[in-house]
Amino acid sequence: MGKRLSKIYTRTGDDGSTGLGDGSRIAKDAPRVVAYGSTDELNATVGMVLACEHVPDPVREVLTQVQHDLFDLGGELCIPGMAMIHDGDIERLEQQLDGFNTDLPALKEFILPGGGMAAAQCHLARTVCRRAEREVVTLSRDEEVRPQAVRYLNRLSDLLFVIARVLARASGHGEVLWQHERRKKPAS
Asked: Which InterPro entries does the record match to this protein (predicted)?
């Protein structure tokens, strides 16, 4: 285990810089910091899903593992050249996604975010995941980023969508479908 923080504030970031895991310093708004910051935010939003009541144990187990993965991914993004997310992690997400999706009805319409608190929080996590993915892609244009990082976030956003559907159904709220026909056509 690396250094332990005995003092939380260091004042070293007062100049607008932050330290990476390899000891180098970069601007707090650098694409690398933005990417791992959004990954950290994503982890917090997954924690919000887990804080909701009535999250089924299989979902709870998967999302707890996801939190550990996201911590690893943040470390990978914070330490240039580090490899902590692997193909097996992505394959696991795909298997979990397939497993949860098996019992869901086929989609015929878009779903609005909602379906109870846990499902709504999961939809929020999904959107934060998509943003984190975009920011990792942005980072990869200028710096080395392993493709597993982008692939993991891409699969995770799909998994979060499916879990939101599972949670909406489990809560009894059900899914709210987008009603594209709700707009009346203007009279000619």
From this structure: CblAdoTrfase-like, CblAdoTrfase-like_sf, PduO-typ
CATH number for the domain formed by residue range(s) 26-99+110-173: 1.20.1200.10
Closest by Cα among 97, 80, 79 to 151: 97
Note the Cα 140 to chain centre separation in Å.
18
Domain range list for the chain: 26-99+110-173
| Residue 98, CB-side half-sphere exposure with 13 Å CA sphere | 6
Both tokens assigned to 59: 């979902």
Nearest CA to 139 out of 18, 32, 22 is that of 32
* pLDDT tens-digit series, residues 62-110: 999 999 999 999 999 999 899 999 999 999 999 999 999 999 989 888 9
The reported pTM is: 0.89
